[in-house]
Specification:
There is one protein chain. The protein is mainly β. The protein has no helices and eleven strands. The chain has strands spanning about 5, 10-15, 20-25, 35-40, 45-50, 55-60, 65-70, 75-80, 90-100, 100-105, 110-115. The strands form two sheets. Strands 2, 4, 5, 6, 9, 10 and 11 form a seven-stranded mixed sheet that branches. Strands 1-3-8-7 form a four-stranded antiparallel sheet, with no helix packed on it. β9 (about 90-100) and β10 (about 100-105) form a beta hairpin. The protein is globular. The relative contact order is 0.32.
Length: about 120
Amino acid sequence: QVQLAESGGGLVQAGGSLRLSCAASGRTFSNYNMQWLRQAPGKEREFVALITRNNNTAIADSVRGRFTISRDNVRNTVSLQMNSLKPEDTAVYYCRASSGSNAYWGQGTQVTVSS
């Protein structure tokens, strides 16, 4: 079992930056692929970024060049550095851990970008 807790969300002006963190419990964090997803009001939840247990990364086209995902297997955290934020980045951001058929979600953190 993995428990996830996101932090770092907030209100920021367009063009600004935020850094989201997701802290994971458990001793097997390094075995999990970690993702960030987001859900805007009235929209489907969408993929934002992935970092595998081997540190391979994938970034959604909509945020490529602005967002960076990283992980720290000592501190059991995964982070999402978000730069050049746009109003369309406004959403609840979720952290997800997956390994095989197992997947765990955090509660989410709100990011609001004002124009």
